[in-house]
Amino acid sequence: MEPEEFEAWVLGRLRKLGYLTNRTPRSWDAGADGLAQAPPGSGLPNLLIQCKHTQGRAALGLDAVSELLRAKSAYAMGDNCRLLVVTNAQHFSASAQRAATEGKVLLFTVRHLEHFELLRQHLLAS
To answer: Which residue range(s) make up the domain with 102?
Structure first.
């Protein structure tokens, strides 16, 4: 799967949860790949999304989290917005996890998105 296909796949999974999704521009996206507006009355947060498709098995590093934190100011998503990094990597590096905790960024691997109800429950709890 190519990176753009991965972005479309991620946004498609969010649409199955009822989100209205849009891709950001291919260039000058300020570090975000997609926007997801929660279904009205769902209690789910809006999402600003960074997708990272990797070719190897290494942990996804800090860059994805840093890019998304910088992108937050470029998109007006409201108070009910969460930042979400999604990767096909098996896990995230320790530095990415620390930055995500500090910046309140949700980190998801593909397996989270394959189990819609678990994803929904996690988003409602966050």
So the answer is: 3-125
